[in-house]
Design goal:
With about 190 residues, the protein is of the alpha/beta class. It contains three helices and nine strands. Helix content is about 20%, strand content about 30%. Helix 2 links the parallel strand 2 and strand 3. The two termini are about 30 Å apart. The structure holds 1-O-pyrophosphono-5-O-phosphono-alpha-D-ribofuranose (PRP), hypoxanthine and magnesium ion. One of its GO terms (cellular component) is cytosol.
């Protein structure tokens, strides 16, 4: 990717397409290894942010002896801000039961941790056989609550990230890399 293709509102590229591809392949291999004896694995993508990560990740998972199904939930708490509103809204819930199944939540980012914490409590009450999560990005210093995460892509600094599915006020999801949004785009 040449520098001329970088969006003008991106301060710097944090991870390139190649770096992301390698990391996603690594995560997919770990998941393949860990779930080889699973009967039913439900991968739950959390929209909208996870849609790119989910689509790349699932194509690296090879489990010929497992019923692998994909489900989606849509959850929102950020709106047009760069910090969590603290109000976790479920916009769209699962269509099927997860009772007795192995469940893996697929998320783009964990920042305050509030979304994942809420989600784990909700899904645990539906009695899955197991419940884990695969998260591409984690802002360790942003965490306001303890949340267990089994698969982590990258730990990142406290900057606002866009691209590869992540947005600011619904823009930039289409960028193929992960970049830092310029402060002047959100600081008044
Ligand atoms: O750890 P937290 O502080 O809760 O932040 C993480 C959540 O925030 C983002 O969702 P957002 O509310 O922006 O919805 P979106 O995925 O539709 O962009 C992101 O996709 C995670 O779901
Ligand atoms: O840094 C971020 N970028 C995009 N969405 C987010 N949701 C939580 N943190 C972020
Ligand atoms: Mg968002």
């Amino acid at each position: 990717m040449s520098t001329t293709e970088i969006h003008p509102n991106v301060n710097r590229v944090i991870f390139t397409e190649t770096q992301i591809k390698e990391k996603v392949a690594e995560l997919a291999q770990q998941i393949t290894r860990d779930y080889k004896d699973s009967k039913n694995l439900v991968l739950i993508g959390i929209l909208k942010g996870s849609f790119v990560f989910m689509s790349d990740l699932v194509r690296g998972i090879h489990l010929p002896n497992t019923n692998v199904s994909l489900e989606f939930m849509s959850i929102s708490s950020y709106g047009a801000e760069t910090s969590s509103s603290g109000i976790i809204r479920i916009i769209m819930d699962l269509r099927t039961s997860i009772e007795g199944k192995d469940v893996l939540i697929i998320e783009d980012i964990i920042d305050s941790g509030l979304t994942l914490k809420h989600l784990i409590e909700l899904l645990q009450s539906r009695k899955p056989k197991s419940l884990e999560s695969a998260i591409l990005l984690r802002k360790k210093e942003g965490l306001k609550t303890e949340v267990p995460v089994k698969y982590i892509g990258f730990d990142i600094p406290m900057v606002f990230i866009i691209g590869y599915g992540l947005d600011f006020a619904e823009n930039y999801r289409e960028l193929p890399y992960l970049g830092e949004l310029k402060e002047e785009c959100y600081k008044k």
